[in-house]
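Table S2 (text version). Query chain:
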Amino acid sequence: MPVRLRPVDTGALDAGAAAPAAPAAAASAAEASADLIPAVRVRASRVGRMLRGEAGSSPAEFVMVGTLLTALALGVLQFGLGVYVRNVIHDAAVEGAYHGALADRAPADGAARTRALISRTVGGDFAQSVTAVESSELGHVTVRVDVEATIPLAGLWGVPRALRVSAEAPKESFHAR
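Corresponding structure-token output:
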């Protein structure tokens, strides 16, 4: 059975008057509940003030802001890693194209050089496909190296063959014109 508290008029007790008499047994339940409403309101307002206060909000704010800043920093690092991998693969394709375009080399040597550079810098799993072909565009013989590689999305894991890079270099020759 819950305990019911009755508000006490402290002014009457301070003046030296006797304590108020207990209500008669014949008092209705409506009168008894009407006496309790101010006590419930006082408690509700105290709880409301405690909930509306800012005490204890610092740890929660720290966790929320810390999580947001950590996610932002990791996103920037991941973007930087993706740009780095793309630049390494592009530079390896350019180097392979120039290597395969040398007068004493074949285009396959350029593809092998590209694979070796990619394996040495970002790992051999990144270059899924490296091809080198000799082509003649606008009357000039060139060597083109095409690379299909993984673009990193979460750490070094990513989507295979999502990054396509190609580079061309003019083929050297010892023929005098």
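Notes on Table S2: The chain has a mean pLDDT of 78. Residues 33 and 53 are 30 Å apart (CA to CA).
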